[in-house]
Known about the structure:
Blueprint: E1 2-8, E2 11-16, E3 28-37, H1 41-45, E4 62-69, E5 81-83, H2 94-97, E6 135-138, E7 146-148, H3 154-157, H4 163-174, E8 181-185, H5 189-200, E9 204-208, H6 212-219, E10 224-226, H7 232-238, E11 247-250, H8 260-269, H9 274-283, H10 290-298, E12 304-307, H11 320-326, E13 329-332, H12 337-349, E14 363-365, H13 370-379, E15 387-389
Parallel strand pairs: 8-9, 8-11, 9-10, 11-12, 12-13, 14-15
Antiparallel strand pairs: 1-2, 3-4, 3-6, 3-15, 4-5, 5-7
Keywords: Metal-binding, Oxidoreductase, Zinc
Domain Alcohol dehydrogenase-like N-terminal: 25-142
Protein name: Putative aldehyde dehydrogenase
Amino acid sequence: xxxxxxxxxxxxxxxxxxxxxxxxxxxxxxxxxxxxxxxxxxxxxxxxxxxxxxxxxxxxxxxxxxxxxxxxxxxxxxxxxxxxxxxxxxxxxxxxxxxxxxxxxxxxxxxxxxxxxxxxxxxxxxxxxxxxxxxxxxxxxxxxxxxxxxxxxxxxxxxxxxxxxxxxxxxxxxxxxxxxxxxxxxxxxxxxxxxxxxxxxxxxxxxxxxxxxxxxxxxxxxxxxxxxxxxxxxxxxxxxxxxxxxxxxxxxxxxxxxxxxxxxxxxxxxxxxxxxxxxxxxxxxxxxxxxxxxxxxxxxxxxxxxxxxxxxxxxxxxxxxxxxxxxxxxxxxxxxxxxxxxxxxxxxxxxxxxxxxxxxxxxxxxxxxxxxxxxxxxxxxxxxxxxxxxx
Length: 391
């Protein structure tokens, strides 16, 4: 089959790889009809390269049609249409029973002291082949895949794989009251949905991003928008009676603009041998923290900062005096996708499209164009906000 493979820093290639096969009786094989490029894929393209291996198959936001099921699979059959959550969870361990599917004890990558295995997401999360490919092997097929209808277009359902539940969890964790103010830093795909979810839940939402096209998309959905610039925390306080927002979602993560020291560290990591670079990431502060520190500065006293953007440094400096003095709550983590999909499925099927799932995709292409679109997405060129690949 054809698949998008990692070849090195800022280098991905479509090539022929072996077709996936049933390995366990609980597996299924899914023919992929749509697979999105996620903002966190760009971390593999850049910062997390030391954990990648040549020819790793990328992608963790797929959906498609079931082609084959293992002998123990009873909830799926050939021809079913399914969305595949990005985290691989069993559904029956202690963590899954607590709604913490991203910490699944059955698929945890203990060799790296990581949580649940993820599709297409490096040695840190199991080196499992991903879904930017023609076919995908799906473990725990009786639990993970979300069965959906046959009538609506893929784009109605595709974002249940990751970014929509990620945004929903981020806003739930932020816990701003109805009528309260939620600020969202970063209006990429997750930030777009987090903004819309906040508005849907009755919150005043202020979105912050330096890219005009992203601000324009958010504004179409009733979000107040600001450019990300020096003094943004003061501007947010001025808009909220001097207090700051009740809650802030950081939908940017480790590659934020405005962090020159960590930016240099990212470049330096790329020059080190993989094992040395891994050790540096696991012991040093290599995250670009400008957005996170601004979120902490911006949020009102007693407020909550919710992190959906990915961070990877083990010694990233944090303003603990400020956090303690302001009595800030910090919530974070990989999304527990299956915890939220039953709530979200009726919303994506609603004719009114209350979360605007049909107004997110800016680029649709075949697998052959994926390398070019990774480059555009990373550089934020050509109005690129969300890419969907059609294998």
